[in-house]
Amino acid sequence: MRMSEGVEWGLHCCVTLAWLEGDGPVSTARLAASFELPAAYLNKRLQALVRAGILSSTPGARGGFQLARSPERITLMDVVAAIEGTDDVFRCTEIRRRGAGAAASGREFGRPCGIATAMRQAELAWRRELAAQTLADVMAGTPASAAERTRRWFAAERTHT
Amino acid sequence: MRMSEGVEWGLHCCVTLAWLEGDGPVSTARLAASFELPAAYLNKRLQALVRAGILSSTPGARGGFQLARSPERITLMDVVAAIEGTDDVFRCTEIRRRGAGAAASGREFGRPCGIATAMRQAELAWRRELAAQTLADVMAGTPASAAERTRRWFAAERTHT
């Protein structure tokens, strides 16, 4: 079981866009180049972030992506949900009702399966933790040199193109 | 992102084996029939639980599987780790070092990536919750009628075969 690499891409792009705040939209090509990522695949992830209201996109030659709201208001859960969806990781297929369970009274299954309930409770602890951490929190733990270096790299790119 | 259905199978089989405690080993064929699962695939999951020390297996015509320790000492985390492995769900591929990051000093990367750290922290909350819940806890939340029905079903199976 593995989370899509798009989550790592999306989170890093959001942090980059937060660092470049005020510089106007950033194109997929430049974001892709800044991490050496395949532009077409990255664009799909960025579009998913737009649909989730995390990024806004501006069309046209000078267009691209910007954060749609401040890093304090974007949680890790928002980005994970935008890229991975919101389905439970553990999906109960109710095997308890099959085979030996087929003859059971419906009443026995009135309560949700104890296994599914316990698994869901654990997953909620994960989602709560993801929802408790914002992009701003993550950025606060990143060395200032990374932000400066990123700004310099994009500024140099702008000069060249 | 989805957990293997083998986790649901493994957890239900462990609960069933706990209910049948004292009846001797239970074969893959009978466990598979009790949930209408494909026996060959189920066997792979059961073997993984044996390798993890959760089940013990007895070879031979009357052989099969039993819990290797009491349900109080088997956590949901044990079963998930046995079936899914222990790799992080979010895997950092260090894209921060590529492209714009290639020119950065190594010192900037001395600390782990803030994104990876935050994602790992959230995942730990999930694993802690899985590790805090035992099979015995799950069984305590299951209707007694399910345990009785399961015992009756396996007893009838034994008579027929």
From TrEMBL, chains A, B:
One CC-aspect GO term: cytosol
The protein's name: HTH-type transcriptional regulator CymR
Pfam families from the UniProt entry: Rrf2 (PF02082)
Domain of life: Bacteria
GO molecular function terms attached to this record: DNA-binding transcription factor activity
InterPro entries in UniProt: TR_Rrf2-type_CS, Tscrpt_reg_Rrf2, WH-like_DNA-bd_sf, WH_DNA-bd_sf
Organism: Streptomyces platensis
